[in-house]
Design a protein that fits this description.
This protein is mainly beta and 334 residues long. The protein contains 3 helices and 22 strands. Strand 15 and strand 16 form a beta hairpin. The N terminus is likely disordered.
């Protein structure tokens, strides 16, 4: 009977968070005011599946850190204060198909965290947020007003805290924090959002908040982190965002021909941007034969959930029957 009980306790569980251990950073492992393809602005995706929320732009630099807990992930997200006395945090919006099992249930949120710096960053909170608007059409900036210190942010319409966030008293040592037995019972909940933030309005430059191993499960008690192989997490993330270098051949002055399969089926037909070189001018395409970098603006949608399709129409400027290449970015985030 003891063996059966232990088996039940350690039975497989489903963590609805993707990249909770902060291992995939397709947009770059350093995100600041000058980084590309994304900068450290409020309401910006940073490490895969995670959104930076902050009371203004350039509030924190974001980086992949190897300061991580023993027995946990190899990496954490480092939120490093760049503009003092402002609140900031990270959030993940969970796709409806991956959080339907949470709705109407008692759930647990857990994560590992620590702080560093002046000692002023001493009030970290976490919440489970229910979105009762249209399924998978979540307004990603869920904060309407950040408020004064130790006052929970005011959320936007259709977003509701399912728990009462409280100061977790995060220290300079790695600790696992558990918020358990949270009923996700807001009427018409369609999506679930995990939100972790600093509720301090008195910070110094260089103060940092580190977070990793974030998990939410449909269980009253928090479970051991459900860690996946990195290749599995990478594939999960590519459903929402990926990028790559692509080569093409022109068939006219306005059309490039290609057919490229995505590494995994995306959540929806992606928004597509391109540039060359990476980190260079948006809409540049590199002509391989003579190193020209003319600028083109694409017309119409040319990708579905499975890949790039056949013809990419430009305003003008291509040379017929020439080779081109560019970095392309495919985004289907919530």
């Amino acid at each position: 009977m003891a063996i059966q009980g232990q088996f039940k306790q350690d039975a497989p569980r489903f963590n609805s968070i993707i990249n909770g251990d902060m291992v995939i950073w397709a947009r770059g492992t350093t995100i600041n005011a000058t980084s590309t393809p994304v900068a450290n602005n409020d309401d910006t995706y940073i490490c895969d599946r995670w959104i930076l929320l902050s009371d203004g732009n350039d509030i924190v630099d974001v980086g992949r850190s190897t300061d991580a807990p023993d027995g946990g992930s190899q990496y954490s997200v480092d939120l490093d204060v760049e503009t003092i006395d402002k609140k900031f945090g990270i959030a993940q919006i969970i796709e409806g198909v991956n959080c339907h099992n949470l709705i109407g249930e008692s759930c647990s949120l857990s994560f590992k965290a620590k702080v560093a710096g002046s000692g002023k960053l001493d009030n970290v909170k976490a919440g489970i947020v229910a979105w009762s608007g249209t399924l998978d059409s979540v307004t990603s900036d869920i904060v309407s007003a950040w408020g004064v210190e130790d006052t929970n942010p005011t959320l936007i319409a259709n977003a509701t805290f399912e728990n009462t966030p409280a100061n977790l008293s995060v220290t300079t040592s790695w600790v696992e924090y558990k918020i358990e037995n949270i009923d996700i019972d807001t009427a018409s909940t369609a999506n679930v959002i995990v939100f972790i933030w600093s509720d301090v309005t008195d910070t110094d430059l260089g103060d940092s908040l580190y977070i990793t191993d974030v998990q939410i499960t449909p269980t009253r008690k928090a479970r051991k982190f459900d860690r996946h192989p990195i290749e599995t997490t990478a594939s999960d993330c590519q459903r929402y965002y990926h990028r790559g270098m692509f080569a093409f051949i022109s068939s006219s002055a306005t059309t490039l021909i290609y057919n490229n399969q995505f590494p995994t089926q995306m959540r929806t037909s992606p928004t597509v941007t391109h540039e060359y070189p990476e980190g260079g001018t948006a809409n540049d395409i590199y002509q391989i034969a003579n190193a020209a970098t003319p600028t083109f603006v694409p017309n119409g949608r040319f990708a579905d959930v499975n890949g790039l399709k056949y013809a990419y129409d430009f305003d003008a400027g291509l040379t017929d029957h020439e080779g081109y290449k560019a970095y392309f970015y495919f985004e289907a985030e919530l």
